[in-house]
Amino acid sequence: MTKYSLLRSTLALLVSYLLAFAVRGQASTETRVAITGISPSRETGQDYSPWLDDDPKNLVQNSWLPSNFQYVDVTLKLARPTVLTRLSLFDYQGIFLLQPALIYAQNGAQRTLIGTFNGLLYNVWVDMPVIGMVTAEAIVIRKYCNNIPVKIKVFGQASGPVTPPAPVAPALTFGALAAKTVGDAPFDLVASSTNAATPITFRSSNPGVVSVAPTSAGAWQATVVGAGTATITAAQAAGNGYLAAADVSQPLTVAAAPVVVTAADRRNIPRTLRSSPPRLCRPCGAS
Question: Is residue 281 part of a domain?
Fold first, then answer.
C-alpha cells in the first residue's frame, strides 16, 4: 500500500467515525414533542382529538359530510418550539396517491414543507425525516377529506428561546357588489387575504335589507330581505403571524320588486275608477 493510499484510507475511516458520532449524538438528544392543541381552518365535522394521545384504539374517524370534501389546514400546536428531526405517522387503511396529505412545519408566519403522506403503508408507523434545521411551533396537516394519518408523533430537539417575528398587516380584498332586486336568489360573498389561514367573516349594516351568514361548507352567503341600502363589511381577525386586517366595506342597493298588473287585476278595479270622468263640484251658493 502506498503512502497516499494509506492516507486516503485513514481519512475515510476518520470521516465515517465522525458521521457515526454525529448521528449518535442527534439520536441521543432527540425527544418526543407533545401536541397540545388542534385547530382546523374550516369546520368539517371531523374530530381530530385522537391526535392528542397514543391510544391505538382511539383513531381519527372518517367524516363523509359534504363540508369535508375540500382542502383544510389542520394546525397542531407543539408544546414548545422545536428543531424537528422526524415525524412518525400511522395510517389505518386506505391509499390516497392522487390527493395526499401535505405536512408542513409552521414557525411564526413561515411555513416549510416537510413531505407528503399517501397512506401507501398502513397499520405500521412510517417515519418522515426532516432535512436541515427546521424549527417549528406547530405542524400543519393540509388534507383533503379523510386522507390523513390517524396518529402522529413529533420528534425534535429543543431550539431554545425563539423570538417570534413581528406580526404584519395582511392585505384584505373585497370587490364591489352588484345591485340587487327583492326576490333575487342568495349570492356568495367572496374576499381574499394574504393571511390565508385565518377565516374571513362578513357582516351587514342593515339585516332588514340584506342578511349574511356562513354556510355549512364554510363559505358566506348574503340573502336579500327587503328594498333599501346596506353596507357589507369583510373582516379578518389576527392570527397566523398577522395583525387583524383593516375592514373592507362595500355598499349594496336593493330595489323593490316591480309591480306587475295583470288583466285579471284590471277587471277587479271598479268601473268608476277605470272610465268615469271626474265629477266637478260647483262652488257653494252657485246656481
Answer: no
